[in-house]
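User: Hi! Is it possible to get a structure for several chains at once, not just one? Here's what I have:
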Amino acid sequence: MKVSLHWLRRFVDFDLTATELAEKLTMRGFESEVVSDFDSLENLVVGDVLTAKKHPDADKLKLCSVSDGSETFSVVCGAPNVDAGQKIVFAKVGAVLPGNFKIGKAKIRGVESFGMICSERELGISEEHDGIMVLDESFNAGTPIKEVLGPLYNAIDIEVTPDKAFALSHRGIAREVATIVGSKLKTPINNVKLNPKTKDVISVELDKKGGCTRYIAGTMKGLKVGPSPKWLAEYLKSVGQKSINNLVDISNFMLLEIGHPTHVFDLKKLAKPAIKVSWAKKGEKFDALDEETYELSTDHMVITDTKNTVALAGIIGGMDSSVTDSTTEVLIESAYFDPVVIRKGSKKLNLLSEASRRFERGTDSNAALEAFNMIVQLMQEVAGGTLESMITDECSMSLDNTSVDLSSEKLLKYAGQEIASKDIDSILKGLHIDAKKTKTGWNCSIPTFRTDLKVETDLIEEVFRLYGYDNIKSSFNYSSIMQYANDEESTISSLKHHLSSLGFHQSYNNSLEDIEEVKLFGKDAVSVMNPSSERMNTLRTNLHSGLLKNLDFNYRNGSANTLIYEYGTIFEGKTDKLDDITQKSSLSCLVHGDLFSKNVHFDSIPASFSFLKGVASNIFEDKRLGIKVKFSEQKHHYCDPYFSIIDGKKQVIGGLGIIKDSLLKQLDIAHKHEVVIFDIDPEIFTNYGSYSTKVEDIVTFPIVQRDLNFKMDSSIQVGDVVKTMKSINQSILQNVIPVDIYQSKDTSSKDILFSLNFQSAKKTLEDNDVNSIITEIINIVSKKFNAKLRDN
Amino acid sequence: MSLDKTIKGLKTSFSKELSKSKTSQDLENFRIKYLGRNGQLASLFEEFNKLPVSEKPRFGKELNILKNELTNLYQNALRGNNENSVSSDIDFSLPGYKLPDGKIHPLEQITSEIKSIFQSIGFSVAYGPEIDDDYHNFEALNVPKHHPARDMQDTFFINPNAVLRTHTSNVQIHLMENQDPPLRHICCGRVFRNEAVSYKSFCLFNQVEGLVINETSSFAEMKGTLEYFVQEMFGKDTKMRFRPSYFPFTEPSAEVDIWNSKLNQWMEILGCGMVNPNVLSNVGYDNEKYQGFAFGLGIERIAMIKYGIKDIRLFYQNDKRFLEQF
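Assistant: Yes, the chains can be modeled jointly so their relative placement is included. Here is the combined structure:
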């Protein structure tokens, strides 16, 4: 909300610049930014345009000579309205305009320009930028601009939080300023007694179901629509609003003055001078002031003239009954609407107005009459009309102050320190709260404009806020009871570090993806009802899609070799019901390209399926976890081949596979090699506990190593042969490693060289111990795989 | 006596031939001839076996000395040969081969840092669901259905009653529903906001939230706790301020700014406040007896301040050139 210092001074005297005021209000919980602080602007003076000629090289530019009272400068100006004889805002070389816009010497289309003639937008006054700002002729050239514009246009922008309804007006902010500077609040418009001309009574009927608990109405006649007086137009301009005409301006002025929305109907356009507040019919069409037609529902409260809907209550007026240039008679509405009704109605139409913003936050029940009286007074003064009817005030709500107790014990317990009783007294007084001392604290009478103060903690907050958060001393005296990460958390953390040590970068990908892409992965996905874009309308069902995008991005940016992983949540759901949705953690790795690129030392080593299978072994067979796993080939929606990784308890603890080319094509993933993925189910993985180990004795007897070279059919899987060999002896045959495979081009057989390690935990092995096993292996392998032992 | 002579002869021919063996192939042939399983030294030992028992001790000793001597000579020659070849074959100016070097994501690093700071002062870590019902994300936290405070967080809906959580505060409710005070926890994880994606906002971000509930924790203690955190995270000399603010789930509420001396301005880093008594009663706690404070901070924001990152989207692009820098 834009707040003008000029306007605030109607209510309170203070000696602060806009910058100082913004800082003070920010520390009171009203986050403020300076819009324009003319006191801080240097090198800005009233300029006198002596001449304005066409620029020699540009049709739309003018070449002006501008006097600052003592010197004359040549200035190029692009505004269509600049003319000789004008007094203007002249920013000299060296000036810095709002938004840190520095003015320097410039050459524009070959002509040197010393300074700039400013528009209102450039000065932060309004959005007006079609032309330059023209000042009153009475100003003398050379007068500093802060003296000319400062008094009127110094302004700040306040972000008012949803709880502080009372602060949505200049009077509301002025109350806060009064507590900051310690001065009294003034009453610029005195409440005078209004004398209606007739005894006519406007009938007002409220709906019994509630929604509107106070409605004040009255009519005025003999009004003359015309331009607003200067003072009124200036106040509106000081917050960047345009003056429209006296009647409209008065209504807008009152809103920003005391924060209570009112509405003015053209009396002649109402079926009769009567008001009925009720609910819209389903599907009812309503032509609003903003020239839009809205379709209403039964949730919408409407104002009717007993025949037609003339306003959408508390949100916006109707087009047909609005004030125009020919209006002479009006009906004035000042009401209280229920915040929830207004909130629902405005949300449903996605229609926010200055009025709805205030009603949905809760308005002051007493301000309704105050606003009504002020409007009538102002209209009499400015538009020459008189109050015609009696004032109808239909009211079914309490207009009394509420009462809230504040206990000193609670205040102490909340603050953690004593706040002096006299400080609290003066804080409450500053807030216009009538506080009576009780045995336990204070009984507080809350003025109706503070709709936010309902319970004790609301008051505690106010006391802290005005006392100053900085004045509450911090305390910190933990006898540090260190908490450690639980097993699950530390296992996952170790796993991440393990992967990084193996060369994997960790990714963080968006959880929201495009449903068309998610579908390709073949799971039941959960979608968002109100996505911000179609590219992000569905929750990921796996981590592979994100990792593939990372591969694609990096590949296209010159980096083909990719080792990445992500740990994150994936979602599945047969329906959008919460009970049907599963959300669980997952961990996936992806590799592509080379682990090592070719170099002078050796050829490239691919980051292949075998590499990732090795990584799986690294992780699962870690001695500290000792997870025994088997790889079992399965059909997979988008991998071929794909192996489920099964642990000793027959649980699927992970998976390993090569992404199908068809998927890569559909997703247009840039790549040149196979793309391999490896998954770990974190839930099962962490069930194996944290990384911890019991050390086994180291066997010191020598290892005997033997080689065996077999020739066998190409179709035989080497893994099967290894498994068979290992099963022959489990006491001293420690390991079987296929060292070399030679596939001759023209035969259907291959030679495989196996290296066998023997070691006993009990003794040094003799030749005989090993030979008998070797013989057995040769026999069994020869028979089972129809293999032939070859000479070394 | 002939054995004595043989030993001497072997020594001479051994030295002579060794000095002529230059290549590694020569040396290997030499080894087989003298020291191999059927080599000359082995045949000497065979002869030794035939000696009468009385002579065995003397010759045994001599043969062992001989064996050691010859083996040493051979090993030295071999080493010398290798040293020569090493220094002539390798170009030490070539680049070494770097092992692949993976990095932990910057957001994870910051989260870990924050977690360990709070763990060091007695906070436990908790997690909760990213899709939750309206009750846990809003209503239980004192944000009723038709309240303007709902506009503070643009929400993604899964169905009219389930949302992508807009903060990790839903975990606070789950915690309190399942456990009695005292509580001292932080909750971490992803939260979602339906905002246009730009350099300064993304549709999701990571949050760490803290909750302390007991019979005494005060505003002063909240200030002390968060001052400790800021000093640990940003340095002992960090200038900070508590500024009144509004959150529906806390009262009094505050925002914390730290001074950025490079930009010469305050930067907001976290929100906090005393837990609203309505929240406590919603989970069935006695709000006359118990009180406490809560706070929440955005990991991306802190990472951006700490690492000087200007575009939030970089965190989710996973550009290798970015990740490598951490």
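Chain B has a mean pLDDT of 89. Chain B touches chain A through 83 residues (CB under 8 Å).

User: Great, thank you!
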